[in-house]
Amino acid sequence: MSFPSLDNCRICGELYIGSGTLRLCEKCRRKLDEIHARARRKLREGKAQGHLSSLDLAETLGEDPRFIQILVEEGLLERREGDSSAENLNRARLAAEFSEELRRLKGLGEKNPVSGEGMFFNRRRQREKED
């Protein structure tokens, strides 16, 4: 049983009372649901066009890449059985690819409204220390 706690939203930073694992406020959670539906439609339309990276997908949809990263982390944008490239695309690789794209953007002088703390960075850093 999880108890409600006061937390900051991973996207907008607003305080909210929540007990879920996504750590999103209600407004961002609704927006994530909308983006998920749009991303699925876009990926279905683009099957014949080849692979879209998570950053390409975010740019195509005109949305913040953090929403796409959350969808990837939660396994909501994985390739399904029947895709010839399903074994080549897994969540860990997509997350690593996305991290590299964010680092590249940060190096180009893009302003990041949220610090590198939180989101998936802390978990990845912890795993790297353990290895």
Instruction: Estimate what percentage of residues fall within beta strands.
Output: 5-15%
Q: What is the string of helix and strand elements? A: EEHHHHH
- Alpha-carbon Rg, integer: 16 Å
Tell me the structural class: mainly alpha
Strand order of the largest sheet: 1-2
- Give the distance, in angstroms, between the N- and C-terminal Cα atoms: 31 Å
Largest sheet: 2 strands, antiparallel
- Shape from CA axes? globular
The number of helical segments is 5
Number of domains: 1
Helix content: 40-55%
Number of DSSP-assigned strands: 2
Q: Write down the overall mean pLDDT.
A: 76
What low-confidence regions span 5 or more consecutive residues with pLDDT below 50?
A: 80-87
Characterization of this structure:
Helix 2 packs across helix 3 (65-73). This protein starts with a strand and ends with a helix. It has a two-stranded antiparallel sheet. The protein has helices at residues 26-45, 54-61, 65-73, 91-107, 121-130, and strands at 5-8, 15-18. It has 131 residues and is mainly alpha-helical. It has one domain (25-130). Mean pLDDT is 76; it is low at 80-87. Helix content is 49%, strand content 6%.
